[in-house]
Design goal:
- 44% of the residues lie in helices and 19% in strands.
- With 413 residues, it is an alpha/beta fold.
- Strand 1 and strand 2 form a beta hairpin.
- The chain is globular, with a radius of gyration of 23 Å.
- The chain starts with a helix and ends in a 6-residue tail after the last strand.
- 50% of the residues are buried.
Amino acid sequence: MSVTELAQRARVAARTLATATRAVKDDALIAMADALVTRTDEIVKANGLDVAAAREQGTSESIIDRLALTPARLVAIADGLRQMAALADPVGEVVRGSTLPNGLQLRQVRVPFGVVGIIYEARPNVTADAAGLTLKSGNAVLLRGSSSAANSNAAIVEVLREAIAKTGLPADAVQLVDPSSRETVRDLMRARGLVDVLIPRGGAGLIRSVVEDSTVPVIETGVGNCHIYVDETADLDMALSILLNAKTSRPSVCNAAESLLVHSAVAGEFLPVALAAFRNAGVTVHGTPDVAVLDEAVVPATEEDFATEYLALEISVAVVDSLDEAIEHITRYGTGHSEAIVTGSLAAANEFTARVDAAAVLVNASTRFVDGGEFGFGAEIGISTQKLHARGPMGLPELTSTKYVVMGAGHTR
């Protein structure tokens, strides 16, 4: 089926979803969660085909980690859908309201976008998360995953559509766009008037292509070249714990740390310990000369290394002489995703949070907390690094627009 036909069907479904009650939508979310668990074997089997094909093609383990589904991961995905059901429905929320001097009653209320298109890479968990978030926020969704996850996504969407239909909502609330042709990406980006907003999730190349070539409005989710800055007043035990968590707990995700900056006043004490911990964790360090002299395993860092989102057990490391220098480095190489400072100084913390321009700025906490679930939003549609409409983890409210409702009593102007 063509993108145009899918989008037309989605628009019909969106009209029903826009006025669906919270109870009906929540019932659908619970049904979707139950179905994923009940049909785990079927989904894992389909995913196994994708993982095997990826390994045959020499795909990196970090990408395979993003691709792979296990029974435990499906339980977690299902739990995410149940958590969405417990969240407040954003549709109909009054953002602001007043009675004007002339007696007109004015309300700005949240409404669904309508049809949301999502283009994403090799992460089948996004399929279920996006389906749940869009349904709860009253939107229909067109999902265009990568060909590398084709079997996984097809199995998940089939399960979700059947579950949705059994609750009385239209199955076309969730539709899968053919991933076998690049033309479907182009068609989705050109479906202005049928698709209301497009959200890309993936690497820098995919995001840039969608932002530059789409005629459909785009919410840009950005790559995560995230930094940990260890200040001269930092508790170094705390800094090491935060650093290892941010880099090694799951290196293939966008909120993993990719660069370490250490104040020169504590570099001599902290770096030998940190480098040894990295070596034990299998992390390759790309460091400046003053870092490389501390450990023969350090790879000399290039300009490109400091600008790289590794998504693997690799990190760039540099020594800085001041908070100003750390902020200048982050400004130069950061992607506006998540930046963290470890410090014992309230003044340094305040200056860092005020001056660093990112969707999330953290003090004495791992960048891994920048996540819709961790923020209490439920699953997220992505981390927006742009400054219009939405910024940071995009939960349910970020999948709505607003309209003004004006109530009069025969008013004329």
